Amino acid sequence: MKIGVIAVQGAFIEHEAALQKLGIESIELRQKSDTQKGYDGLILPGGESTVQGKLLKELDMFDTIKTQIESGMPVLATCAGMILLANELSNDAHAYFQTIPMTVKRNAYGRQLGSFHTEADFCGIDKVPMTFIRAPYVETVSPDVEILAKVQEKIVAVRYKNQIALSFHPELDDDTSIYNEFLKMIA
Ligand code: GLN
């Protein structure tokens, strides 16, 4: 099994390290030719969604990756990655891959609560650690989107078909339960 990690900007190295700990091979997707290399799943890391969206288009990677997602490639998206998957952003006119019918709010926790750590249930798993960094949350979902986790009444994790999207950063905590959920979709 091999996971392609989008590596144009942001926290991709942390995902690679987490996968390595699980004994899973990853490849960095830095340029268009990398998207043809063959992989079984995709990770969209945290970072700055506007920069990532712009770079993916400039590097001519955007359409290929969108097609891969729409064709059923399993996806794990964290933070900025969640923003890239949303059909719509409530506080930004941009939208990117638009592969999950949900509305996401960027930088949704405001300045005071810019970064925080908590634990919450995730899809029936008790107390999964969650690290939020200038995080988005999901404001609305269409009925066929499964809600995997809520924190303070806000939706912070969803699954839609082959895609899991998270407001927080599992790559920054030692707990592997979220990666296991993702790997289950590939197996
Ligand atoms: N605030 C960032 C954005 O809007 C996301 C933050 C993150 O990925 N940690 O893209």
Secondary-structure map with pairings?
Elements: E1 2-6, H1 12-21, E2 25-29, E3 41-44, H2 49-58, H3 62-70, E4 75-78, H4 80-85, E5 86-89, E6 100-105, E7 115-122, E8 125-133, E9 137-141, E10 146-151, E11 154-160, E12 163-166, H5 177-186
Parallel strand pairs: 1-2, 1-3, 3-4, 4-12, 5-6
Antiparallel strand pairs: 6-9, 7-8, 10-11, 11-12
Descriptive report:
- It is built from 5 helices and 12 strands.
- The chain is of the alpha/beta class.
- The strands form 3 sheets. Strands 2-1-3-4-12-11-10 form a 7-stranded mixed β-sheet. It has a 3-stranded mixed β-sheet with strand order 5-6-9. A two-stranded antiparallel ribbon has the order 7-8.
- The longest helix is centred in the first third of the chain and has 10 residues, at 12-21.
- Glutamine binds at residues 46-49, 79-80, 83, 106-107, 133-134.
Helix content: 10-25%
Give the SSE order as H and E letters.
EHEEHHEHEEEEEEEEH
Largest sheet: 7 strands, mixed
Instruction: Give the number of DSSP strands.
Output: 12
- Average pLDDT confidence is 96
Estimate the global geometry from the Cα principal axes: globular
Tell me the number of helical segments per DSSP (H or I, 4 or more residues long): 5
Unreliable residue stretches: none
The termini sit apart by 9 Å
Bound molecules: glutamine
What is the structure about, briefly put?
The protein has 187 residues and is an alpha/beta fold.
Please give a handful of descriptors for the protein shown.
187 residues, alpha/beta, seven-stranded mixed beta sheet, three-stranded mixed beta sheet, 5 helices, 12 strands, 24% helix, 36% strand, binds glutamine
